[in-house]
Amino acid sequence: MRTKIVAGNWKMNKNLKETEALLTELSAKLPDTKAEVIVAPTFVNLAAANAALQSSTIKVAAQNMHFAESGAYTGEISADMLLGIDVDIVILGHSERRAYFGEDDALLAKKVKTAVDKGLKVIFCFGEELEDRKADKHFALVESQLKNALFNLDASAWKNIILAYEPVWAIGTGETASPEQAQEMHAFIRKTISDAFGSAVADGVSILYGGSVKPSNAAEIFSKPDVDGGLIGGASLVASDFVAIIEAI
Ligand code: PEP
């Protein structure tokens, strides 16, 4: 059985007080669930988030990480720094990092390798732009994103990889991929991984869907056999919405 996961990407939202308040509310309302629940506040609030969640099953993730061990990389954060504050999950490859900070597949391959070598779990995001889908290039694009960033990993590293398929046209736009579109792509992703690493790896990897998931559409998307949960942006900032999405899994 694959792990079901609901992860909230808070992006550049919530100051310290707001972080603590949202986590207190979330912990109090968290439904009884077998799914893994993860939240990713901004770097400066990660330690406080862990402290606020001490007696909760909710886990904390970072939104990014540098590939280098340490050194002259002003403003950056290393794997060891995350592990040093008990954060062992990191989101890499989010479309906003790709679009606004120039992160490409080659850079992401280095980040993923460092993260898994250090023992972090990676939520690896990828997905096509609207033009790719209109030109019927979405499968080829997704395949190349996976190959370029992840296919240099050993099969054993895949236990630390969580995939998040996020069609860029659905992120923060209110436009959601239909459950059928999500299932079609997730099945393709699993087959691509199976062809390269074998069915045990492919069947074990959780593939999350991300892109305007909300309480009203979560259950239908999560009902698809290859959709193992969601990476949630906007709706993860409101406790009642995030809880409703967790309840939907
Ligand atoms: C995201 O940023 O990963 C995301 C899925 O955002 P939203 O849910 O707001 O579309």
UniProtKB/TrEMBL annotation:
Pathway: Carbohydrate degradation; glycolysis; D-glyceraldehyde 3-phosphate from glycerone phosphate: step 1/1; Carbohydrate biosynthesis; gluconeogenesis. Keywords: Cytoplasm, Gluconeogenesis, Glycolysis, Isomerase. Involved in the gluconeogenesis. Catalyzes stereospecifically the conversion of dihydroxyacetone phosphate (DHAP) to D-glyceraldehyde-3-phosphate (G3P). CDD domains: TIM. Homodimer. Belongs to the triosephosphate isomerase family. Its EC number is 5.3.1.1. It catalyses: D-glyceraldehyde 3-phosphate = dihydroxyacetone phosphate. Pfam families: TIM. One of its GO terms (biological process) is glycolytic process. It comes from Flagellimonas taeanensis. Substrate binds at N9, W10, K11, G172, S212, G233, G234. InterPro entries: Aldolase_TIM, TIM_sf, TrioseP_Isoase_bac/euk, Triosephosphate_isomerase, Triosephosphate_isomerase_AS. NCBIfam families: tim. The gene is tpiA. The active site is at H94, E166. HAMAP family: TIM_B. This is Triosephosphate isomerase. It is an enzyme of class 5 (isomerase). GO terms for cellular component: cytosol. The keyword Isomerase applies.
